């Protein structure tokens, strides 16, 4: 067993739990002693049977196992590890004559295999890489969970003060049956919020039924809402179940409710008050149990004043009001939404991308997004579809967005020559302070995005902000 020339190689700073399974206990203990020098917490099992017991009873980050042992050999240890500890990595040790078996182990999920006589430096490197990969997987899982807990409510993503307030309202209102009116521009995610209310309510196992009022001619709207009997009107060949009936027990989402004709508003108010519907052409009333969530991009109060919307209906549907801000008013959420949409779209499209280039991030952050979240999502989908190198860059952006990198976000070195010239001859701390403040200005104080622009760690950026007393 050879020893590395340099035992002071990079150490693993957080202890890695390593199980070493080998029926040659002397060899196993020598391996454990060497790995302990890079801060591994090692345990030796002198047989496959003992190794199996420890895999059943304890948690391990890495399992190092000899391939040839007694009844419980290395392949069985690999199988048990993947069954009991699916996140753990397995390194197989084998003699030169058993390489074919080691390849079989790789095909069954082993991280790597090493041949005897063992090079401890090679083993240490393999353990470090395996544990780093494992920790990255776990860290990503923790970040995803943290993202959902801190920034999301079943898909409603945001870290701005406005979105925190909205998520708090959603959490309070979702368990109730209160009627909700959602205000917001087109593309701000009104239906997404309505679905979040439904999915986090006791009605989540019942239907969520959306209906866009503005997409329907007035002549068929009432039939869509309440249903009809055969012969109720010309062309009504059979009975039709309306949206209220279809949503019974669940949630009915009426988008663009301000476009509803006055006659239909009267009938909707009656349904909400009495919780009963009558199909067109029928005499019998049908009880319904539906929660109504409505949405509009119009000023319904002004509609009431102008006589376009019934005041009594307005107050009936506006029990709880949620105002969704346009994306331009919560630009700090753009980086979070970018990552959220990229993850979602890579799953949906089957395409893969490592992330966004620095220039693309600048352009996406600087754009004013008249189409709001919907436009941002569609833009990222376009970038993903057009991408051919795994990095979403400005070549996939629409021209009006890509031009911002040159026209509105020139490189700092080319911008305001007098300002940059003023840094010549100044201490490096002044130069660093200048660039950090510019990055904070460009990202509206978003530290995560600023750290990406500057290509430094977020903790380092936070320390520099405090050190230089910068405005965020």
What would you say this structure looks like, in words?
Helices cover 47% and strands 13% of the residues. Helix 13 crosses helix 15. It has a five-stranded parallel beta sheet with strand order 2-1-3-4-5, with helices on both faces. A five-stranded parallel beta sheet has the order 9-10-13-8-14. The protein folds into four domains: 16-143, Response regulator (Rossmann fold, 3-Layer(aba) Sandwich); 154-325, Rossmann fold (3-Layer(aba) Sandwich); 328-407, Helicase, Ruva Protein, domain 3 (Orthogonal Bundle); 412-468, Arc Repressor Mutant, subunit A. The protein has 20 helices and 16 strands. With 472 residues, it is α/β, with parallel strands linked by helices.
Give the structural class: alpha/beta
List how many beta strands DSSP finds.
16
Strand percentage lies at 5-15%
In helices, the fraction of residues equals 40-55%
What is the CA–CA distance across the termini? Answer: 56 Å
Q: By CATH's scheme, which homologous superfamily of the largest domain applies?
A: P-loop containing nucleotide triphosphate hydrolases
| CA radius of gyration | 31 Å
Spatial order of strands in the largest sheet: 2-1-3-4-5
CATH top level of the largest domain is Alpha Beta
Count of discrete domains: 4
CATH architecture type of the largest domain: 3-Layer(aba) Sandwich
CATH topology of the largest domain: Rossmann fold
Oligomer: single chain
